Amino acid sequence: MEINKALFDNLQNFFGFDNFKGDQEAIITNILQKKDTFVIMPTGGGKSICYQLPALMSEGTALVISPLIALMKNQVDQLRAFGGTDSIAHFLNSSLNKADTLKVKQDVSDGETKLLYVAPESLSKQENIDFLRGLTVSFVAIDEAHCISEWGHDFRPEYRKIRQIINNIGENIPIIALTATATPKVQQDIQKNLQMNNAVLFKSSFNRSNLYYEVRAKRNVLKEIVRYAKKHAGKSGIIYCLSRKKVDEVAEALRLNGIKALPYHAGLDSKIRAETQDSFLMENVDVIVATIAFGMGIDKPDVRYVIHHDIPKSMEGYYQETGRAGRDGGEGNCLAFYSEKDIDKLAKFMKDKPVSEREIGTQILKEVIDYSESAVCRRKQILHYFGENFNETGCNSMCDNCRHPKKYFDATQPLLQVLKFIQDCGEKFDDTYIINLMMGVDNAQISLHEHDKLPVFGSGAEQGELLWKSLMRQAVLNNYVQKDIDSYGLLKLTKLGTAFISNPATIKFMMNNSMEALEDENEDFHQQGSSMDTALLKKLKDLREKISKKNKLPPYVVFQEQSLEEMCIHYPISVAELKQIQGVGSGKAIKFGPPFIELIKSHVEENDIDRPVDFVIKSAANKSAFKISIIQNIDRQLTLGDIAASKGLTYEEILKEVESIVGSGTKLNLNYYIDDIIDEDRQDEIFDYFRTSEVDSVDLALSELGKEDYTREEIQLMRIKFLSEFGN
Q1: Could you confirm whether domain 211-354+366-376 is CATH 3.40.630.30?
Q2: What is the distance between the alpha carbons of residues 308 and 496, in angstroms, rounded to a whole number?
């Protein structure tokens, strides 16, 4: 009773709360009783208080092992605000200078520090072990404990040495391990490594009922992200990308479109990263575009959306990253973009790793693929991954799969086939093997086991791969089979599966979402297949002809056909909007644009046309740095061959890039290069041809000038020169 009273008094005094959340009270009581404690609690569940409060109430100093400097700083700042003195909490890591380190150790030795945060790397230093050995350590808290396990999403080898170090510091020191993402396998790993098999386990539900989960096929992803951020203007969001390059591109595109966004990745200076983090917390910026390094331990309660530009590497990572949305219980939207190209990239990353690590990585990635492609309730899949059974009716349509109509198929016979095969073949194969068997894929593994001679081989080819993928996923989710993680995901029959073989009952499963072949994510923003205003196109062509005659230029020099067509879809009514039209750019927009803009404006008003709101999405950022670099190299009079080599391009590719730059209205002087490889008379002939030609086709020019007399390269170069001199 005494403990309970003290608990509530201290909770109110230190943190200003009247009540505990979930299992917090029971966890804290357990720690105060000096028992090992294992806490599995989702992001936003209040893990930090579970060790902060007992540390403040206990004699001595609690050690908190944490993986990130940013995380430590964030928590120490909060504790100092609550506790009133700076000495109440400290961190010991590589960011401190010698004087700072001495100050920390002095405060700890004087008994003023109740929580000392350390990185596992700092903890392993002998001088720090010697220092800690002379102290009263109340307990050790291991935050982000999933870092111990190779099956966790953020494995840190240093974490596996923690138990040995604790033994060196003192005897019978209680341990509390905490994580927000622990599958049954990871949980087992943590307990085994820390030698805390007798620990009291507190496991909260992983369900975050306020989060909405959605997966979209990856098409025009940058456009969709910009549109989404504009729709949620003024709200806080985090966008995760796999590469630093993509982080910079997306952040730039958002800024170009009036969204307050900043990039965050390890390639940035630590001071800039800290400032970015503070800007986000202080709401000077709405969106952070980041690699997965961002956000661990960031306590911003009102993040309203988390977007994955690229599919995450693991379900644990996905859960933790999406868990940064809606921590205040309010709106939290989680959107992920999926493409097979991303999966291929992630698979390539694993190619050079040791076999065991690659096998683990492949299994972890496969879970992400299954989650993305499945039509089953997203929430049910996430919770199943963490060992929790969930009835999808409790989702309340808070995922895209539950909101959209389903396509079902009769799974009775196919499921029976699969379960019998698993039983007959001694539970020695994974789901990929079984799918290949049913589809009749004649690979080396199937031949080795002579399963290509079985009646079941190829018997499911007619139903299609999508059905078998759907079936295998739901056989696991509905507990007919389970994956043996230790045996690289081999499928084992459950009691339910064995019972189904003996007494099959009619069962229907959902067909997976069809993630069809996707367009290149870097596709320009113009809308494909949108209805084109043919009446406007005629007006624009008439205007172009008038301007071209006035300037004694071929029409294509003013604007190319595809540019006019795009104007008839997007209706640009300002120079800024006209610049975004394919093949226009700044130079052409200013030189030829005004009469076209006026014409489009009048047409829109006369016909009461609703212009597409998303048109103004600016895409120039994508390739601007690359193109600027090419322009600078041409200004330095480097040969196109040398420029191509420096950019890792072929000669044909560099010509295309230069054509694109000139076509968008930038003037380039290539005379230094052209004069060197094409004599003057030949230049004049090609120039005269383009001056009188109605179209700028290279093929047509080559045909009319004579393939025997001129090369494609010569005509391409002279067309570039012609367009640059007369069109820009």
Answers
A1: no
A2: 36
